[in-house]
Design brief:
Blueprint lengths: L1 H28 L7 H10 L10 H4 L18 H10 L8 H9 L2 H12 L14 H10 L10 H4 L18 H12 L10 H7 L4 H12 L3
Helix pairs in contact: 2-6, 4-6, 7-11, 9-10, 9-11
């Protein structure tokens, strides 16, 4: 009996494996669920009272153009970078009382939708304010600080500050106060330190307050 049915059983097993492989291939070929920028726009502007979610606009401004200098401009930021930061806020890598609380209330789809909305917005330009440090800021941004082994900001963020999706954010026109705060947190070894970029920690740790302020001011004027 075993000998008689052996070829049949084998053929059935092969058929089942083929079906399984085909199903897996079809599943893998399905496009990833796309983010819904329209839903992101609603959540950004109005929040979600039923879930106790506040509106992002209250802190980050209309269409992501914050007018509060300690809160970042998010308009035009890389969609993938915003999503990553919202995820990071739910981990010890980037802890911030307001954003950590908010990010933990968002679903994964919410994060993607908000990121899609903000990534499609136009960022309003900023401006450098300190003419006494503009040359130092420009030098650091474009050429780094060789004596301290500080790499040029432009090597990762681009000559005009447009960055690279996921890895390096768009920083052109960003508020001076916000950039100074982030570089200072990257440099910190305290509990409030920002830990989600070992590269930025290494760079910021080698910079003085004056160098941070100078490059932050220069960045604000990039377009």
């Amino acid at each position: 009996m075993n000998r008689a049915f052996s070829p049949f059983i084998k053929s059935m097993l092969l058929a089942l494996l083929a079906v399984s492989a085909t199903a897996s291939a079809v599943e893998a070929a399905k496009p990833a669920v796309k983010a819904d920028a329209a839903k992101g726009a609603t959540l950004y502007a109005d929040g979600d009272a039923a879930r106790g979610l506040p509106a992002c606009v209250s802190c980050h401004g209309a269409a992501g153009n914050s007018t509060i200098t300690v809160n970042p401009k998010l308009a035009g930021q890389h969609e993938s970078y915003i999503y990553k930061q919202l995820v990071d806020f739910t981990t010890p890598e980037r802890s911030q009382p307001v954003m950590t609380t908010y990010a933990k209330m968002l679903s994964d789809a919410d994060k993607k939708n908000i990121a899609a909305y903000l990534g499609a917005q136009l960022s309003k330009p900023g401006a450098a304010k300190n003419k006494d440090t503009i040359d130092l800021g420009k030098k650091i941004y474009r050429g780094g600080i060789a004596s301290k082994q500080v790499a040029a900001c432009a090597s990762c963020h681009g000559a005009t500050g447009n960055g690279i999706p996921v890895q390096y954010p768009r920083i052109a026109g960003q508020h001076q106060d916000y950039t100074v705060a982030q570089l200072t947190m990257f440099r910190s070894t305290k509990a409030d330190a920002r830990k989600n970029s070992a590269q930025m920690h290494t760079i910021a740790a080698r910079m003085s307050d004056d160098e941070i302020a100078a490059v932050a001011d220069y960045i604000a004027g990039l377009k």
